[in-house]
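Let's practice the habit of predicting before peeking. Look at the sequence and jot down your guess about where helices and strands might fall. Then scroll down.
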Amino acid sequence: MKFIFLTAALASLFSFNAAAECAGVSCTNVKITRIVTIAKGGVSVSTSGDESKLSCNAGSSGYIKLRPEDSNYNAVYSLLLTAHTTGHPIWIRTSESGECSLVYAVSDK
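Done guessing? Here is the structure:
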């Protein structure tokens, strides 16, 4: 009985990680793996997903940018910092083309 429970628990952990991905205009169920704060303004993040699969250009380092002129910059940055610190997965919507910029972020519990 313990073996079946342990196997089911491990399977659910592996299926959780397998569901994290980036494609098209979003990264779903990803963790923030890096935050770069730029001295002249702005923040860039990378995730546990593969940003090269996004329709926008994440560059060779795979970064999604958040700009200080965005009207809700502080709230979004706060969400990104919290997700990074706690390791909580989030969902990120990006721009459709050009340089990848963050449109919005969602955290579910």
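How did you do? The two ends are 29 Å apart (CA to CA).
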